[in-house]
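Data card: per-record layout.
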Amino acid sequence: MKGTAAFVVLVAISIAALTWVLGWWGVLVGALVAGFAVREQRGGGWRVAMAASLGWGALLLIDAASGSLAPVASTLAAVTRLPTAALVGLTLVFPALLAWS
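The structure for this 101-residue chain is written out next.
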C-alpha cells in the first residue's frame, strides 16, 4: 500500500511538472512513462489516472492561491452556462481520461 501511494504522488508531481512545461500534452507523456512502468500490474491505469487528476488539482490550487482562477472560472461558467463547480470537475476528469486511455 505504501508503494502505491508513493507511486501516485510521484506520478502526480511528474504530470503537474510536465503540464507546466508542455501543456496538456504533458499528461500524455507522463502517463505513457508511468503506464509503461506498471504495465504488468493490475489497476495501473486507474492509479495513473488518479495521479493525473491529483496533479492537475495541485495546479488548480496554485492558480486559486494566486487569485487567477476565480475570474477565469466565472467567465467560462457564464459563457458555457455551466456551474463553476462543474467546470472544475471537468477540468479534473480531462487529465484522468487522457492518462487512463
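Known properties of this structure: The longest helix spans residues 44-66. Helices lie at 2-22, 25-37, 44-66, 69-80, 84-100.

See the next section for split statistics.
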